[in-house]
């Protein structure tokens, strides 16, 4: 009944809400019609009046609009700041519409301002509230009257008979012959109602319950006879199971042991079993309180459920004394009559003695195999295994298109160590060398001991010979200090021979032979030395060492000098800045370009010193040129990743600017695209810190890396520099043309400047200029110049006749 009343109230409320919504919508449409009337009927004359600036006419028109229904405020806001208004602007509950004021003059649409019309919604809201109050009051009265009427009828016609039925059902009993339930009411077959149906159902139910009671009594008697027979059979079957000498258990799906034989019973330890009447399989077999896991002891029950068939596995079972036994466990699935899986039958066989015998045989076999492939003194692979790994390295190098190196290492004068200190000292020296070689090899490399004082290494997946040179130089440096062996300080040196795949050969045997030849060549030339099999590689290695040693001294000897390459606005043909480029004035090799020594500087960790030198030199020069009244523009300096990440780099830049009295706006730092993607979040934080000084940033070699546009938007950069590799073949190379146009479009969308480097011909310059890149750097205007020559350019300008002819 209550649900009926609630449902009626909900329906009425929904209908009321729909009516209110329609009234609200009609009210809003009425206001919208007033707005449309103003737009269609007034706008032409208002636009004309504003164009001629007829204040009297404008006022009349605003009053006319204000007289429209619901319009409470109207105003005209002109572009020049002028304003006309009529009425009072409501503080709340209003709807406003803005209409642009335009006028066609000589074919041109002129925007003069806007018309603001405000309609008051309070009247509409008041009407809606009144309707809500009326509906709620009428609904309350209707609900009260309906409830009273329904309750009265229900009490008279239903409740009395329900109380009679309730008393009758309380007295029902299962083992008592049923009596018929009769209600004191007029009824016939034609006038039967729900109460008559309920009475009939109760009478049928009590008859059925009584009959069921009699059936249960009969069934219980038959079941008791069957249970006695089953008990007899159970005793018979148990005697059969107890005759099996191996432990056997029947286990259900919940690990409960349903049946076990005498052999399994002997494995029970009562204190390990939580419920002695219902032991778990793992409590008996493993003496533990949880099921077997899937690693050391996979659960046989789970395995049978997975495979749907019998399984055999090995477990480690403790006996009642705690001694461990290896058992072979066999589990077969168990099904009921309907074919449903209900558990397993598990039998175990102790195979401890068999396992021990097998283990001893395997250990002996492993020992023989180890001695066949490993050096027993150092534990390193021997020559046989090393040759096999060389073959493997060749296969991987062919598959991955990589290089690898073979190194033969020999201790110089090893015989004298044995002769002077004895064999034990010699063996300890070999062990020490083996540990050094392993410690400094990569995980992917292989180290071997061939016997005596001969060792071999495979350096896999090398990019170039510098990786090999770094490794052997590291070994040489280690042996500059003595080895501490048996309280003795022992100085040793090694000779090394190197062959490279596929430079020297693609055949594994040849590479091994060539490394051995190179080793003997190194020993002939002089001890404590290494040689590449190819003479060219030996020369390269020598040159690199010479450059590396000289470069460390070049910074402090004043051999590094800055050169400057102008950046030109191709439209005005004026210099707008320059890039500072480092050069090395070697005392014997002459002027060395950065491509030959910057990589070395990065590897030996002195690149930050070079970057700071260039920052100091460039800011000092440009500050001086400005003081002399010249206009050099902005000088850009390249900064490496190591320098950016160095401690207090931002403060060091600030100190350099202050020392050289150079404004931050004169300086631009160039960073490469690949540097940014090394650790974008950290680089962004560093750049933001430096940006606060007022310094500009440019991305050098843009387009050659793999920068994300998501990070590019976050970078505090000012300029993109198009890499020379894209400029070289324009406008003839379609791919380069597309890439350059894309970079220019990207820079414009991000509001960044764009400059192209490496421009050498007029065709290249014209193409860039035509496509929106007006900033040019390259030999078309000027090569990099020393300070004296760049100063002349700043004073007298670029010489047009010196430009290359396309």
Largest sheet, strands/sense/barrel: 8 strands, mixed, barrel
Order of strands, widest sheet? 17-18-20-21-22-23-24-25
Q: Globular, elongated, flat, extended or rod-shaped: what is the shape?
A: flat
Q: Compute the gyration radius: what is it?
A: 49 Å
- Total beta-strand segments: 25
Note the beta-strand portion: 15-25%
What oligomeric state is this?
single chain
- Overall mean pLDDT stands at 83
Low-pLDDT segments, ≥5 res: 800-806
Secondary structure tally, helices:
26
Q: Residue share in helices?
A: 40-55%
Distance between the termini: 100 Å
Description of the structure:
This protein is α/β, with parallel strands linked by helices. The protein is 50% helix and 21% strand. It is flat, with a radius of gyration of 49 Å. The chain starts with a helix and ends in a 10-residue tail after the last helix. Mean pLDDT is 83; it is low at 800-806.
Record keyword descriptors for this entry.
806 residues, alpha/beta, 8-stranded mixed barrel, 5-stranded antiparallel β-sheet, 25 strands, flat
SSE inventory with pairings:
Layout: H1 2-41, H2 43-52, H3 55-66, E1 71-78, E2 83-87, E3 94-105, E4 108-120, H4 122-170, H5 194-242, E5 248-252, E6 257-260, H6 262-265, H7 281-285, H8 300-307, E7 311-318, E8 324-335, E9 341-350, H9 352-373, H10 383-400, E10 403-411, H11 414-421, H12 423-440, E11 446-451, E12 454-462, H13 465-478, E13 483-485, E14 488-490, E15 494-501, H14 508-525, E16 530-532, H15 535-554, E17 560-569, E18 574-586, E19 590-592, H16 598-603, H17 607-627, E20 634-638, H18 641-645, H19 649-659, E21 667-672, H20 673-678, H21 680-691, E22 696-702, H22 709-714, E23 719-722, H23 724-727, H24 734-749, E24 753-756, H25 762-770, E25 775-777, H26 787-796
Parallel strand pairs: 15-16, 18-20, 20-21, 21-22, 22-23, 23-24, 24-25
Antiparallel strand pairs: 1-2, 1-4, 3-4, 5-6, 5-9, 7-8, 8-9, 10-12, 10-15, 11-12, 13-14, 17-18, 17-25, 18-19
Helix pairs in contact: 1-4, 2-3, 11-12
């Amino acid at each position: 009944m209550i649900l009926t009343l609630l449902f009626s109230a909900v329906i009425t409320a929904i209908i009321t809400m729909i009516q209110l919504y329609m009234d609200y919508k009609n009210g809003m449409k009425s206001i919208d019609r007033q707005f449309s009337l103003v737009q269609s009927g007034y706008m032409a004359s208002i636009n004309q009046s504003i164009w001629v600036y007829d204040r009297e006419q404008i006022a009349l028109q605003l009053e006319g609009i204000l007289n429209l229904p619901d319009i409470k405020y109207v105003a005209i806001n002109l572009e020049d700041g002028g304003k006309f208004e009529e009425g009072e602007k409501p503080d709340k509950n209003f709807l406003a519409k803005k209409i642009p004021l335009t006028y066609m003059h000589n074919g041109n649409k002129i925007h003069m301002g806007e018309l603001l019309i405000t309609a008051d919604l309070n009247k509409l809201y008041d009407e809606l509230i009144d309707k809500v109050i009326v509906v709620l009051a009428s609904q309350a009265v209707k609900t009260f009257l309906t409830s009273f009427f329904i309750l009265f009828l229900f009490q008279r016609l239903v409740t009395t008979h329900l109380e009679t039925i309730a008393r009758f059902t309380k007295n029902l009993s299962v083992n008592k012959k049923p009596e018929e339930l009769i209600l004191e009411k007029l009824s016939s077959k034609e006038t039967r109602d729900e109460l008559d149906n309920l009475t009939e159902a109760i009478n049928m139910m009590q008859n059925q319950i009584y009959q069921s009671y009699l059936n249960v009594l009969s069934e219980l008697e038959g079941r008791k006879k069957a249970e006695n027979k089953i008990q007899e059979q159970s005793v018979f079957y148990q005697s059969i199971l107890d005759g099996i000498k191996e432990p056997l258990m029947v286990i259900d799906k919940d690990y409960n042991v349903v049946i076990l034989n005498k052999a399994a019973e002997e494995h029970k330890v009562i204190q390990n079993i939580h419920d002695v009447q219902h032991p778990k399989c793992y409590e008996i077999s493993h003496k533990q309180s949880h099921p077997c896991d899937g690693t050391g002891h996979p659960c046989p029950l789970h395995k049978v459920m997975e495979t749907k068939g019998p399984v055999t596995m090995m477990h480690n079972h403790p006996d009642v004394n705690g001694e461990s036994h290896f058992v072979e466990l066999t589990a077969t699935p168990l099904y009921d009559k309907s074919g449903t899986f209900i558990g397993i039958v598990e039998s175990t066989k102790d195979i401890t003695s068999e396992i021990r015998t097998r283990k001893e045989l395997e250990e002996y076999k492993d020992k023989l195999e180890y001695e066949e492939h490993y050096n027993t003194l150092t534990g390193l692979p021997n020559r046989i295994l090393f040759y096999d790994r060389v073959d493997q390295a060749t296969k991987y190098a062919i598959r991955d298109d990589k290089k690898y190196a073979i190194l033969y290492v020999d201790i110089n004068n090893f015989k004298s160590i044995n002769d002077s200190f004895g064999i034990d000292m010699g063996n300890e020296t070999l062990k020490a060398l083996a540990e050094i070689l392993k410690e400094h090899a990569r995980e992917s490399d292989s180290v071997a001991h061939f016997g005596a004082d001969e060792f071999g290494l495979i350096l896999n997946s090398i990019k170039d010979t510098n990786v090999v040179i770094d490794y052997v130089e590291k070994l040489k440096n280690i042996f500059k200090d003595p080895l501490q062996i048996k309280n003795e300080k022992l100085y040793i040196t090694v000779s090394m021979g190197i062959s490279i795949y596929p430079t020297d050969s693609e055949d594994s045997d040849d590479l091994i032979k060539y490394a051995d030849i190179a080793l003997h060549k190194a020993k002939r030339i002089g001890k404590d030395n290494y040689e590449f099999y190819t003479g060219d590689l030996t020369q390269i290695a020598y040159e690199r060492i010479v450059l590396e040693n000289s470069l460390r001294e070049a910074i402090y000897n004043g051999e590094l000098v800055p050169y400057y390459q102008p950046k030109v606005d191709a439209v005005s043909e004026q210099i707008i800045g320059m890039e500072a480029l480092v050069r090395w004035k070697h005392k014997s090799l002459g002027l060395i370009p950065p491509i030959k020594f910057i990589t070395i500087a990065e590897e030996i960790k002195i690149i930050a010193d070079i970057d700071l030198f260039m920052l100091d030199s460039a800011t000092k020069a440009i500050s001086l040129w400005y003081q002399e009244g010249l206009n050099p523009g902005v000088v850009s300096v390249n900064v490496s990743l190591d320098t950016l990440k160095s401690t207090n780099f931002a403060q060091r830049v600030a100190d350099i600017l202050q020392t050289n009295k150079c404004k931050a706006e004169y300086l631009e730092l160039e960073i490469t695209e690949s540097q940014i993607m090394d650790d974008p979040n950290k680089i962004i934080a560093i750049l933001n810190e430096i940006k606060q000084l007022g310094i500009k940033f440019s991305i050098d070699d843009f387009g050659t890396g793999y920068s994300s546009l998501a990070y590019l938007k976050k970078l505090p950069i000012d300029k993109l520099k198009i890499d020379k590799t894209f400029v070289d073949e324009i406008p003839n190379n379609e791919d380069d043309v597309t890439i350059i146009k894309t970079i220019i479009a990207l820079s414009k969308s991000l509001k960044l400047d764009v400059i192209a480097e490496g421009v050498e011909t007029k065709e290249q310059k014209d193409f860039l200029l035509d496509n929106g890149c007006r900033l040019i750097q390259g030999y078309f205007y000027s090569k990099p110049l020393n300070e004296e020559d760049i100063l002349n350019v700043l004073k007298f300008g670029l010489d047009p006749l010196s430009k290359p002819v396309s």
